[in-house]
Design goal:
Helices cover 44% and strands 15% of the residues. The chain has 316 residues and is an alpha/beta fold.
Length: 316
Amino acid sequence: MSKRPSKKRDTRYTSYCHPRWWPTWIGISLMWLMSRLPLKLQWWIGKLIGELAYRLIPRRRHITEVNIRLCFPELSAEEQQKLVRKAFHSNGIGIMEIGLAWFRDPKVYLPVTTVHGLEHVDAALERGNGILLLGGHYSTLDLGGSLVTEFIKADVMQRDHNNPLMNAIMTRARERRYGVALDSKNLRGLLKQLKQNRIVWYATDQDYGRKGIVFAPFFGVPAGSITATSRIAERSGCAVVPFSHFRRENQPGYDIYFHPPLENFPSGNDMADATLVNHTIEQEIRHHPDQYLWMHRRFKTRPSKDDPDLYRKDPH
């Protein structure tokens, strides 16, 4: 487990006055303006964005189709395609919700937000070793995280944006809501926060390459799964609390869920631990399968380097 601190970020807006940053500033300004629209209208625009992406970005559509076919073999081909399209719509809404998370006070949306299982967080904090919030890459990622800080005090681990200005906007916005926004590689900082009995949002559900992983089942498919979650829990003694957040189907609104901490974790068996983590996230996804980030190549890393690429299109 790496202890190297993250590269220092520059979040000063004065560092981004050069004309080369102006296109990014224009995009950010548009996000700010759109965040002022009524929620229903934002959802409608988000669905439109998702539909356009579904039609115009064939590579991401193909990745999503492969993931849905692998993870939901019980669905007919027609049902799988409907889920693919709905996933694009949900993630389009998620793009709109980024503006809400970054530029709006989440208190505005508390009347349409319900939190479930907060008692599990309170009980885990009483242990005094901190909480690792086991999250996932749901389409409500940013807004769900912003809303949850109205109910708990938490820190977050994030993968920094490749665009330094976007990263500055994102980091400043998140640090207004969270206590600290830690770089995803800053595990020393994570352990420090847990030692102070803090709550830290942490996601393990993407393919991070071949280093430090086991191939545990995710929807029945062997998936490269990091073992760092076990190492963190072992070294800190923290509770690992599953956490999810979803958009309501029938009317504008959101639900946030906390579940009891994982039992017998870490167990001393990396495969068993990774299988439990994947199963826990899988169970949450199944409640609203369209609201997951299926556009990511979750099964990119294969058990053997000789295994065929699951995302390679058949040339015939």
